[in-house]
Amino acid sequence: MLAEKVIPVRLALAAKWTETMTLLMSRISTNGELGTLANLEMHSIKKLGYLMGLDHAIEQISGTPLSAEAFLSKEFSGTERLIVATNPSALKKDDTFHIRVRVLTNAENISGKLLWKQLGSAEYQEIPLKHLARNVYEVKVPVTMFADDFEYYIEAKVDENVLKYPATAGSINQSVLVF
User: Fold this and answer.
1) Which of 102, 117, 91 is closest to 169 using CA atoms?
2) Of 85, 86, 173, 175, which has the fewest Cβ atoms less than 10 A away?
């Protein structure tokens, strides 16, 4: 009788956790928010075992293994998007322009580029995004490459979809002043 009451609660917990993580990932935009997400996962799943810590006991009491829906999915189920947590807006000529891009998707075929132009110019130039690990990419170049104030946006091709950052890319871009 205990197992009959506990298993539905455990399944509901897994579903709510998945829903919560999807909502959090749809809104993350800073490194601090990424850290909060990592902290929740590390403590709730691994260290303290709030989500799955009693699974073995539930299986022993019920006499059957938990169904697949009790396990947390490793697949992202939200809307694909780019996360760019740091946007430099003013740099010195001897600085390095550094942007890290996280591509939130389940797709494996990902490529990206930073498109930039001098402020007031019409012609964009491209810098490919360098793949670091999993779905993390970056651009790291000396500011002297830009010579003066510039604007940019980021574009990532994810399978057949094209994701852009910022959402207004092409018409309203990110601007950087060079001192």
Assistant:
1) 117
2) 86
Instruction: Identify residue 125 by its one-letter amino acid code.
Output: Q
* E-state strands within 50-173: 81-83, 90-91, 96-104, 110-118, 125-128, 130-133, 136-142, 150-158, 161-165
Encoding tokens for residue 89?
A: 């807006």
Q: Note the maximum CA span of the chain.
A: 73
Query: Are 80 and 59 contacting, i.e. CB atoms less than 8 angstroms apart?
Result: no
Give the number of other Cβ atoms within 10 Å of residue 25's Cβ. Answer: 19
Question: C-alpha distances in angstroms, 104 versus 26, 56, 119, 148?
Answer: 9, 32, 30, 32
Q: Which amino acid is at 157?
A: K
Which of 90, 83, 84 lies closest to 175, judged by CA? Answer: 90
Q: How far apart are the first and last CA of the chain?
A: 71
Q: What is the pLDDT of residues 113-159, one digit of tens each?
A: 999 999 989 999 999 999 999 899 999 999 999 989 999 999 999 99
**Contact between 162 and 155 (Cβ < 8 Å):** yes
What share of the chain in percent tops pLDDT 70? 100
